[in-house]
Structures are given as structure tokens and as C-alpha cells.
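Morning!

This is the sequence you dropped in the shared folder:
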Amino acid sequence: MALRPGSRGAFCILGVLWTLSCGAGASGADAGSQGDGRRMPEIEESDGIWAAQHQARPVDCWEVRTKNSSEWCHFIRTNPDCQMNSGFLSYLDGVFCVFPSALLPLVVTLYALWLLYLFLILGVTAEKFFCPNLSAISTNLRLAHNVAVVTFLAFGNGAPDVFSAVVAFSDPQTAGLAIGALFGAGVFVTTVVAGGIALLKPFTVASRPFLRDAVFYMVAVFLTFTMLYFRRITLAGALSYLGLYIFYVLTVVICTWIHRRQRGDGLSPAGSGQPERVSDPEDEDSPCSSVHSGEYEEEYRPLLPSEEGTLQILTKAVNPLDRRKWRRKSCSWRCFKVFKVPVEFVMLLTVPVVDPDQEDHNWKRPLNCLHLITSPLVCILTLKSGAYGLYKIQGVFPVWGLGVLIGAFLAAIVFCTTKNEEPPKYHCVFAFLGFLASALWINAVATEVVNVLRTLGVVFQLSNTVLGLTLLAWGNSIGDTFSDLTMARHGYPRMAFSACFGGIIFNMLVGVGLGCLLQMTSGQLVVKLELDGLLVWILAGALGLSLVFSFISVPAQGFQLGRGFGVCLLLYYLAFLTVALLTEFKVIRLTAL
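The structure's back. C-alpha cells below.
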């Protein structure tokens, strides 16, 4: 395939930057190699000082695989490094204590399937419950469109990444998982997704938003690189992440205002600035489906109008299946829907959704009254893995029981003072309740994802960093990948390319900053980072290199991106992934660089 001159220049730039990053990565890894929590320093064991330190040092949990299978359970239950302080299930105990060692492959397979289902739960909760409520909140607060995009909608799209990072930073042993996931997702989105968009639809990049987002993201990566070098994040460091994000939001608002003022438009009014609602791919059969939707609904509309009863409204509201849609969908869609139905049913029972685009704002009187009981109950039982919910007041009455009583009292008041046909004036409050309930659902599921990944890392003797940059990064980026590529395929490549850089800025700045800040609330004002040596520096260098490469090559091509640029980015990601895995399995060592 012949490449354009701009594409050949991109390859040349990439080669030069790769050479520079190898040298930088080697020096950074040399500075950080002493803190590798998984590998023993190459010092003679005859040294008495080192021997004393070695005896005082706790044994890493992954070393359980070096023991005899009869010692696995005792090792897991007595080693402090194997203790998981959060989550509802003890996955390490299930692997090494509950099942016999001969069934280890079966248990790992079940854990892998459970991990896939957890990612499915994250996607369904974020897409159908978390994002719509955030959209409703931003609409009720009358935020301008550009402010909503970089705040509420960015939070909605990046919820799995942010909550996974917050959970991982709660334990120094899994901090590498958060770093690997944030950096790995950044490399994946800025290379694979951005390259896929360029392959699908060559286009012209919006120059100013691209340069703005690239600069802010490079600053965020440099800030994280500095924190990794010092192996700790202080209170000032955590606040600097959040402060940089606030400065980014203000920059977006001011730049948009200046640009529109030059055009004579001014800042968009609040009423017209509400965020666009992205349609569910399941609801679309073809690009012309919206044209025929009115005819389709007219066919099934009853001849005589009739009012639905309360029980009928409740039954219809909690049913995640549409029989008409089920009959006209493919077998693959039906199979996938079968796995989603239990998740959607539980979420419909526990998370209210306010939709400003509907005439009644999705007001379901009996179900919304039920939400006043179930949503607070979910919040209580998922916070700190149920530790607060099971606490008994004066040793007698549980906290969750008090939540049920208060919720039932409020539900009775709402039910008696409202009607089925008309939403109350305070219906927008349910959007905040739905936002809180869905956020805690996502946080609880993200905790289980982190624990499963850590367990798989112990079983396969893999570092948290490599698990973060592969499984966790891929799982959390699936939604962004499909949505951005679908957007590009339908003729909006500029919008999809901008989303590649805008969303991950929020994930890194808020994920690291908020995660560390929440850990500091426990009294420890310094978050220590246990890194995995050379691999972390390769990951940080690869992300920085991809950003610098795009920052130089895109303007060099006159902001005209073609298929050659997309191929270059995909090859870069394959090279990065190969180097990362070879480093993890010790094929590439520091001495070889």
C-alpha cells in the first residue's frame, strides 16, 4: 500500500521518538528498579544486612505458586500480602482453599467468565442508568453544552475507569493496577481507537481542540511520571491533579466563548446547550430506522385509549424485554440479551432514571416510589462492601433496617401525593438519587473486577501493571471503542477523534487525584506506590511517546489524517504490547537496554 508523504514523515518521526524513549525509559527504570515489589534484588544472600531485611519483609502473595499445593490454603490465609480488605467475595480463598488443586484450570476459567460478566455489568450500568441521569442533572442545572461534555458526560463515559482507579488506589498493593489501567487505556485509545477512526474514514482534524487536549494530556502524563519517579503521591500532588482538571474545564469554556464571540454567537444558552442523547445501538436496525419508527409504533397503538393501572405500570416498567423487538432481532442479539436481562432487571428495580427527552420524563409512579426504598438500601449495602449497612445501632437495630423504614415512609408520602399520569415538580431529585445509586453499583462492581484481576495475577504470577494495561484497560475501553468507531462509520470522524483525547484526560486526572484523595481521608497523607520496575517506565514512556508523536505528526500532515496514519498507530500499539509482554516475562531486562 502506497503511503502519502505525510504518512512517510509520520513513520520517520515515530522512529526518532522511539529511539529517544528507549533511552529515557532505561534511565527511569534504573532509578525505579529498587522498588520492584515482585522481584528480588540481585545481592548476595551472604550479606547479613540484606538477610535481616529479607526476614522482616513480608512474602509476596504470588509466591504461593512456588509452594506445595497442600500449603496453598495456609499460605493464603496467613500471609498479610494476600488479604483483600474490600469486596464481597474472597477470590483467593476460592482458588486455593475451596477447590482442590486439580481443578485449578476450571476455577480460572470460571473466574475469567465471571470477569467478562462483571465488565458487562459495568457497561450496562454506565450506559443505561449512570449516563442518562448525568444528562438529566446537567440539563436541570442548565449547563452549556461544552461544560457538560467535559464534566458530567466525561464522568459518565469514564465511570468504569475512574471507579476502578479509585478502588485500586485504596490499596498500595493494587496501585500498579490503576496505573497500568489508566496508562494502558490511554495508549489503547490514542493508538488503536484513533488509528481505527483514520482507517475507517480519512478526515480533517479540528486543529484547536486537538492541540489543546494533547497539551493537557501530555502535562497530565508528565505529572504522573514525576509521581512515579518519587514513588509517592502527596496531598499537594493529589490536589494538583484535580486542579489541573478544573483548569482544563475553564480553558475549554473560555476558548469556546472566545471562538463564538469572534463569530458573533456568544456562549450557547443553557436551554439549547443540553447534551445530546446518544441512542442505544440495540434500538437501531438501520440508519433509516428512525424514519419508520412512527409507522411501527402506530401499528401497535391501541384503537381506544385506556389508562394503565398502577400494577400494570409497575410490571411494564421493570420488564427489560420488549416482545416486539425480540421477535425482529437476530439470534446473536437474543443470546446477548439473555445475559443482560438479569442485570437490567436488578438495575430497573434499584436505580431511577430521569429522561428529559420523554414527555413524562420517564415518570413511573409505582416504580419510583419503590426506588425510594431500594436505592437507599443499595447505597447502604454497597458502601464499603456492606460494612456500614450491617452495623447495628446500639448493638440492636441494623443501619439497613433504618434505611428501609425511612425509605418506606417517603415512598408512602410520594405515592399519596402524586398521580400516575403527571410527574411531580420535584421529579428531578430522582436523577440525583439514580446518579448516586448507579455510581455505588459501579464502584462495587469495579471492586470485584480489581479483586478478580489481582487473583488472576497471583495464579499466573503476573504483575498488577501488566494486568492493568491489558485486561482492565481493554475491558474499560470496549465501550469507547465501539461508540467512537460507530460514530466515525456514520460520518462523524472529527467528533470521534476528539473524544479519544478529551475523555482520557478526565479519566487520568480525576481517577488518580480522587483515588489518592479518598485514601488520604483515612489519615495517611502520603500514598506510596509499589511499582513493577521497568514495565511501569515502559508504559509511561509509551503513552508519552504516542502523544508526542500525534502532537507532531498531525500538524505536520496539515491536520489531514489518512489510512497511513491509522496503520502507523496500530503498528505502534502492537510494538508497545510486544515490548511490555517481553519485559513482563523477563525476555527484556534492564541490562539488555
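Headline: The radius of gyration is 26 Å.

More detail when I'm at my desk.
O.
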